[in-house]
Amino acid sequence: MKKEKIAGIIKEQKQIATGIFDLWVTAPTIAGGAKPGQFVSLYTEDASKLLPRPISICEVDKEDGSLRLVYRVTGANTGTEQFSRLQKGDTLQLMGPLGNGFMSELPGTALLIGGGIGIPPMVELAKNRMDKNLIVSGYRDETFLQEDLEKYGECFVATEDGSVGTKGTVIDAIKAEGLKADIIYACGPTPMLLAIKEYAASAGITQCYLSLEEKMACGVGACLACVCGSKEKDEHSQVHNKRVCKEGPVFSAWEVEL
Amino acid sequence: MKKEKIAGIIKEQKQIATGIFDLWVTAPTIAGGAKPGQFVSLYTEDASKLLPRPISICEVDKEDGSLRLVYRVTGANTGTEQFSRLQKGDTLQLMGPLGNGFMSELPGTALLIGGGIGIPPMVELAKNRMDKNLIVSGYRDETFLQEDLEKYGECFVATEDGSVGTKGTVIDAIKAEGLKADIIYACGPTPMLLAIKEYAASAGITQCYLSLEEKMACGVGACLACVCGSKEKDEHSQVHNKRVCKEGPVFSAWEVEL
Amino acid sequence: MRSLAVKIAGVELKNPVMTASGTFGSGEEYSEFVDLNKLGAVVTKGVANVPWEGNPTPRIAETYGGMMNAIGLQNPGIDVFIKRDLPFLQQFDTKIIVNVCGRTTEDYLEVVERLGDEQVDLLEINVSCPNVKHGGIAFGQDPACLSEITAKIKKVAKQPIIMKLSPNVTDITEMAKAAEAAGADALSLINTLTGMKIDIHRKSFALANKTGGVSGPAIKPIAVRMVYQVAQATRLPIIGMGGIATPEDGIEFMLAGATGISVGTANFYNPQTTEEVINGLASYLEQYGHESIEEIIGAVK
Amino acid sequence: MRSLAVKIAGVELKNPVMTASGTFGSGEEYSEFVDLNKLGAVVTKGVANVPWEGNPTPRIAETYGGMMNAIGLQNPGIDVFIKRDLPFLQQFDTKIIVNVCGRTTEDYLEVVERLGDEQVDLLEINVSCPNVKHGGIAFGQDPACLSEITAKIKKVAKQPIIMKLSPNVTDITEMAKAAEAAGADALSLINTLTGMKIDIHRKSFALANKTGGVSGPAIKPIAVRMVYQVAQATRLPIIGMGGIATPEDGIEFMLAGATGISVGTANFYNPQTTEEVINGLASYLEQYGHESIEEIIGAVK
Ligand SMILES: Cc1cc2nc3c(=O)[nH]c(=O)nc-3n(C[C@H](O)[C@H](O)[C@H](O)COP(=O)(O)OP(=O)(O)OC[C@H]3O[C@@H](n4cnc5c(N)ncnc54)[C@H](O)[C@@H]3O)c2cc1C
Ligand SMILES: Cc1cc2nc3c(=O)[nH]c(=O)nc-3n(C[C@H](O)[C@H](O)[C@H](O)COP(=O)(O)OP(=O)(O)OC[C@H]3O[C@@H](n4cnc5c(N)ncnc54)[C@H](O)[C@@H]3O)c2cc1C
Ligand SMILES: Cc1cc2nc3c(=O)[nH]c(=O)nc-3n(C[C@H](O)[C@H](O)[C@H](O)COP(=O)(O)O)c2cc1C
Ligand SMILES: Cc1cc2nc3c(=O)[nH]c(=O)nc-3n(C[C@H](O)[C@H](O)[C@H](O)COP(=O)(O)O)c2cc1C
Ligand code: FES
Ligand code: FES
């Protein structure tokens, strides 16, 4: 699918949890080709902030030509804070769809594991899958997107403080609930991904796909900012580096070093 | 009067001629102390543009606590272009009142001479004077602010193309109309000010006050960016330089070198 | 039609606009956004004799009006470059400038020799990357080293060579004159300015490499100054860069004395920048009645 | 109450925040906006032995995320400075740092000697102004010259001396070490980076002086890098500056190794910056449980 940089139009935006915003933006050319697990680069209107903010595609409405993005405001005076002030009708520069995305068509029961702000891409992934979804979400405390996820699979929650679901990590929840699957799809903080990789190895789940994060400048594979270590020599780079924005953000757990 | 930097609120803005905007901004602390010929520094919301845009005070409504600013958009992607998009209710960072202003109380018949975007300060000056005002405005072609000026004096116009009033310069208009005065107040491009200085000398008008322009950084006399050459050694600087933002923008024609 | 064509070291470019090395990959990545046929030249990411891993991540950070990078010249090596990247670029009607990097003089010479028989128009020698710990930076910050490596490369190069200078020096004209005297055919400037960013909450460096090269609009005034100084000090054609994001920026560099202009960081946030600059150059010639873009090179007074 | 006090060359400042020379006049101009009693120190505009006219106008231009100036060190001379400006500053409960400039070594020595008997806490010696054609810049770009002038000034100075370094050098640590070896008590960095801007419509220089010094947020990463490098290379206390506009910026400089921090260009567009930085430092100590600001000096890892 051709990538484009366009001015999207905000359809609606609301806060769905403390510091978590839920934005629908009309961007037909991007929505048309978007796959679960892909992302878009968002650009601020602030002339002092030039780099893109990569945000995963949470949901796509192809008919309407719009995208749903769910993101966290990371602090004061950040780009995400600026996005959070956008209102219906405002424009938002964005580029996409970027990255490879999840292979949603794999047959078998899948564990869809999201941690914190890694949860949003699981919505579109769950929606696109034909087979059984077991959706495990890890939060610090406050939950979000559970209603959306429940439409597409059986949902399990872990919270650090135990306020909802299993107290502990997503792995704790998987073990507590005795969940079994053929496939793992995961997105979240690196420590969580590391734990999942270990768990998959021990549980013998060979189809384990992780969505990674790295700082980006171009988002299209040109600048080599966003690499992760790869186990084998990467074909493009000829070294043990893969580009998260281009070969990723989704990698087989076995091909990358976290 | 104490200078302040505040967030003013736009009351209204309209375009009054090609590229010329007429803005009323609520800024009570500034309006309270403002005198004719003083100016304010306007700040953009564009993080790439940090310096002030000095704009003369065109009119003051002390009761309402608001200021009128009339300015020209100097080009694409400029600060003034950004100001021209401000709408009722928007905020505008501004600092003032700055500079010395015109001595409006001088008795006698006065020639108030404005050239192009030097015309706006003549409105508040004419309004504040008790004695007779002969107001001469020079335009390239299209006129503006004439209705406002007519309230406070006898008005004469010069246009470069002769489309309105005398064809030629403000000096041509003064001569054509045979205007005589005891005092001159002028604001406009340097060539015009030079011509006025010469005219005042030849006509024996010793009370001749010119409002100068220079690039500014601080607007309060701290950075020494905005100097003009002075005939005598300036007391503050101890050299032949005066600060336009502090000792000016209004100077006696005889104390400065243009 | 007013002419946008310029000549750099005997090579005619249809217009002065090119891509800054390292910001446009091998050309392929941005070919979805830009018609490469429209560009004066594509300058490739730096290539070495063997593949380089580059630096650990984070490799970039945002700075006020710019960015900082410490990619560390990751590259697939000259073999794959010749087999894969060059043939891709050769499909287009644009000039190809290959950016060459190395850790030692021998590294550079090997790459330059390997490129000798390839369809490549110009070689840009990066002696100024601030992110490589061994070699690299030293060449570009000492006139004697610069002179030596320039002469050695010139001896083996089949294409004209452009020496790319580091701005992290006391006197850029001294470096430019050293390169000129040693036989350089053209100069590129500026590479990035060495900077640092600290994450105050983690009390750690924003880049794994601690320091990185600052690029983008923030550095433009420094770049324009250096281009002007070098234009006054040498007779070599200059490829100017550093913060070009609009046609006006590009024109500023040409008035300062640049014959070619490269767009770097701006590609990242506006992939259309190169095309916009080309169009803007044409309008400027129109507006001020210049017959050819060459009339504005160094025309500041 | 957590302590914001810092010590520079034996002088205790109630907090590390000061004004950068030349951006705050003699203190009087901004006293309507800032309570000078709150500042760690006021650093004055550079003062010479005799009044200086400075450069022709335009003296400043806006650049992306910053500005460029070529004021040319206009100043009323030491006589008027001592008679008028010093007594004004002495009314306040803040330290006074006088910035000294000159065209020749003798000029500097004369000013330093004249200030010997005045109530001045520290002297900041500007050997780095890029806008003065004779002398000035040379001192700050050559380690031998810097060393010589530092030693000579140190001999006659009654107050501790802070050498203010130019960033327009290949290796800032070499300059810092030269100043340290010659007896400097502290270092200030950075002064402005030399830049240029061209008005493309007039085809002329934006500044009458052609070049000017770039300051403001745009140059911050370069300044932070130099402060860090110098902190690693010398034992002298450092006053860091270059683009400080927020508390976060100031903290970044302190983590990099600065003991004091100066606000320059930001005063022009936000006269409250110094006070905001002071308040922000206090909150940061609170947030991360530091008892004293000294704990964060050079604390980056
Ligand atoms: C492929 C991908 C998908 C992502 N999807 C989401 C999502 O759906 N929802 C969400 O809330 N967050 C997501 N993130 C993280 C998100 O990109 C950062 O939180 C965001 O860029 C921070 O920007 P800021 O303006 O808040 O912070 P600032 O501090 O202003 O950012 C400064 C710079 O650092 C970059 N940066 C800062 N944190 C990160 C990070 N964690 N990852 C990459 N770049 C970073 C910014 O993009 C920017 O260039 C994703 C990251 C990646 C790489
Ligand atoms: C005391 C004074 C009063 C003024 N009053 C008015 C007025 O009432 N109406 C009006 O239209 N204009 C007035 N001007 C001119 C006005 O300041 C400039 O047109 C304006 O600053 C241009 O800003 P910009 O964003 O359009 O241009 P940009 O090109 O974006 O400006 C870049 C920088 O240059 C400065 N600059 C550019 N042109 C001038 C100039 N002519 N004088 C001073 N600084 C300049 C800007 O302030 C800014 O810092 C006045 C100038 C001064 C000094
Ligand atoms: C991410 C990145 C990678 C770069 N890689 C190289 C490189 O491989 N070789 C080189 O000579 N310059 C490299 N540069 C420097 C640019 O070519 C250019 O000189 C510099 O960025 C200034 O231009 P700009 O401000 O338009 O980006 C790189 C710059 C960036 C931002
Ligand atoms: C208008 C202006 C005038 C300056 N004058 C002086 C000066 O007289 N002496 C000096 O040492 N530095 C002078 N400087 C440099 C500043 O003190 C400071 O080192 C530099 O601007 C970087 O800080 P900033 O980015 O916060 O402005 C001047 C800077 C500006 C912008
Ligand atoms: S962000 Fe540029 S290669 Fe991935
Ligand atoms: S603008 Fe700073 S002294 Fe006038």
UniProtKB/TrEMBL annotation, chains A, B:
Domain FAD-binding FR-type: 3-104
Binding site for FAD: 53-56, 70-72, 79-80
Coiled coil: none
Matching CDD domains: DHOD_e_trans
UniProt-annotated binding residues for [2Fe-2S] cluster: 218, 223, 226, 245
Keywords recorded for this protein, A-Z: 2Fe-2S, Electron transport, FAD, Flavoprotein, Iron, Iron-sulfur, Metal-binding, Pyrimidine biosynthesis, Transport
Pfam annotation, one family: DHODB_Fe-S_bind
Co-factor(s): FAD; [2Fe-2S] cluster
Cofactor: binding comment: Binds 1 FAD per subunit. Binds 1 [2Fe-2S] cluster per subunit.
Keyword presence, Iron-sulfur: yes
Iron listed as a keyword: yes
This protein's pathway: Pyrimidine metabolism; UMP biosynthesis via de novo pathway; orotate from (S)-dihydroorotate (NAD(+) route): step 1/1
Superkingdom classification of source: Bacteria
Family from the record: Belongs to the PyrK family.
Record note on quaternary structure: Heterotetramer of 2 PyrK and 2 PyrD type B subunits.
Protein name per Swiss-Prot or TrEMBL: Dihydroorotate dehydrogenase B (NAD(+)), electron transfer subunit
Source species of the chain: Ohessyouella blattaphilus
Automatic annotation (TrEMBL), chains C, D:
Swiss-Prot/TrEMBL keywords: Cytoplasm, Flavoprotein, FMN, Oxidoreductase, Pyrimidine biosynthesis
Gene Ontology molecular-function annotations: dihydroorotate dehydrogenase (NAD+) activity
Catalytic activity: (S)-dihydroorotate + NAD(+) = orotate + NADH + H(+); (S)-dihydroorotate + A = orotate + AH2
EC number(s) per entry: 1.3.-.-
Pathway stated in the Swiss-Prot or TrEMBL entry: Pyrimidine metabolism; UMP biosynthesis via de novo pathway; orotate from (S)-dihydroorotate (NAD(+) route): step 1/1
Active-site residues (renumbered): 129
Xref: InterPro entries: Aldolase_TIM, DHO_dehydrogenase, DHOD_1B, Dihydroorotate_DH_1, Dihydroorotate_DH_1_2, Dihydroorotate_DH_cat, Dihydroorotate_DH_I
SUPFAM superfamilies to which the protein is assigned, alphabetical: FMN-linked oxidoreductases (SSF51395)
Chief location category: cytoplasm
Keyword Iron-sulfur set for record: no
Span of domain Dihydroorotate dehydrogenase catalytic: 4-285
UniProt binding sites for FMN: 21, 45-46, 99, 126, 164, 190, 216, 242-243, 264-265
Amino-acid positions noted as binding substrate in the UniProt annotation, renumbered to this chain: 45, 69-73, 126, 191-192
Free-text cofactor note: Binds 1 FMN per subunit.
Family the entry assigns: Belongs to the dihydroorotate dehydrogenase family. Type 1 subfamily.
Functional description taken from the UniProt entry: Catalyzes the conversion of dihydroorotate to orotate with NAD(+) as electron acceptor.
Protein name according to UniProt: Dihydroorotate dehydrogenase
